[in-house]
Amino acid sequence: MGITGVMLASVSQQASTALAAASTDNPLMWYLTRTTAMSAYVVLALLVSLGLMQSIARTSKERLPWVVDALHQFLGLLFGILVVCHILTLMADPLISFSLTNALLPLDEPYRPFAVALGVLAMWTMVLILLSSWMRRHLSQRVWRLLHYLSFATFALVTAHGILAGTDATQFWMLLIYIAAAAIVGFLAVLRLLPKNQKPQPAGLRGR
Predict the structure, then answer these.
(1) Average pLDDT rounded to a whole number, residues 2-10
(2) What is the rounded distance in angstroms from the CA atom of residue 126 to the CA atom of residue 42?
(3) Which sign, positive or negative, has the C-alpha torsion 7, 9, 12, 13?
(4) Is the pLDDT of residue 207 over 80?
């Protein structure tokens, strides 16, 4: 491990230790962990949906407002921040022995190993996607597009991770969020895969 890796590990450990000291006698970390997890999932669903809308617009030779691209970039950054906060609150929770190694490697997880391993894999697909976005000018269009297809894997992995690991996954309101997110992303994905001449056109363009 290089100097940078040691410094990052040290900072993460200090942050989690400080948070743990504040949460020994109350469930604050549990609430923060669930809040960051649910917020990250909603943001991810919006992020993937916007990406599909942009892709559909490109294949249909239509132009979307610039604010859509700006919002897509902002949501990508927000999702990354929420994931980091989710990991830090897990590390700070005194009820679970969740280490930096557990966060980085899908091995020997202290809580629901399979479900948490899916979350770790989802995190690494997210890292690849974010890196490809920041380095887009240095990548070919083909490579960038292939890496962005990982967003489907990220969404599927995070959905499975939430359902299998989330303590409130069986709550009616949470099930509605999962179903709505999956339905919207699934519909847009099917619409994206349809041949161009089969895609429904807005009413104003028909007959012209």
Answers:
(1) 52
(2) 15
(3) negative
(4) no
- Which helix (H) or strand (E) segment is 40 a member of? helix 28-59
* Whether 199 contacts 205, CB under 8 Å: no
pLDDT at 23 over 50: no
Query: What is the Cα Rg of the chain in Å?
Result: 19
Residue 33 has pLDDT above 80, yes or no: yes
In angstroms, rounded to a whole number, what is the distance separating the alpha carbons of residues 120 and 15?
Answer: 20
Residue 74 neighbours by CB under 8 Å, 6+ apart: none
Question: For residue 54, what pLDDT is reported?
Answer: 86
> pLDDT digit string (tens) for 132-176?
888 878 878 788 888 888 889 999 999 999 999 888 888 899 999
The Cα-based distances of 48 to 53, 75, 120, 150, 201 in angstroms read 9, 10, 19, 10, 22
pLDDT of residue 73: 87
Look at the block and give the residue holding tokens 């202290």. 110
CB 161 within 8 A of CB 22: no
Cα(first)–Cα(last) distance of the chain, in Å?
63
- Give the position of tokens 């249909």: 60
Rounded Cα distance between 78 and 163, Å, is 22
Q: Which two tokens stand for residue 78?
A: 């927000």
User: How many other C-beta atoms can be found within 10 angstroms of the C-beta atom of residue 191?
Assistant: 16
